[in-house]
Amino acid sequence: MLDAPVVRRTPPQPGGQGANPHQQSAHKPTRNSGSLPTARVRKRYWIILGLLIFLGVGFGFGLLAWDNPMPVGSAGFWRIAELRGTSVIVMMVVAICQAMATVSFQSATNNRIITPSIMGFESLYIAVQTGAVFFLGAAGVTMVQGVPQFIVQIVLMVGLSMALYGWLLSGKYGNLAIMLLIGIIIGGGLGSISVFMQRLLTPSEFDILTARLFGSVANADISYLPIAIPLCVVAGIMLLRNAKRLNVIAMGKDTATNLGLNHRFEVMRVLLLTSILMATSTALVGPMTFLGFLVATLAYQLADTHDHRYVFPMAVLIGFVVLSGSYFVMKNVFYAQGVVSIIIEAVGGTVFLFFILRKGRL
Amino acid sequence: MITLSAVKKNYSSDVAIGPVDLQIPSGGVTALVGPNGAGKSTLLTMIGRLLGMDSGAIEIAGYDVSRTSSKDLAKIVSVLRQENHFVTRLTVRQLVSFGRFPHSKGRLTVADEEAISRSIDFLDLGELENRYLDQLSGGQRQRAYVAMVLAQDTDYVLLDEPLNNLDMKHSAQMMQMLHRAAQELGRTIVVVLHDINFAGHYADHICAVKDGVVTEFGTPEVIMTDEVLSRVFDTPVQVIEGPRGPLAVYY
Question: What is the pLDDT of residue B159?
Answer without folding.
Answer: 92
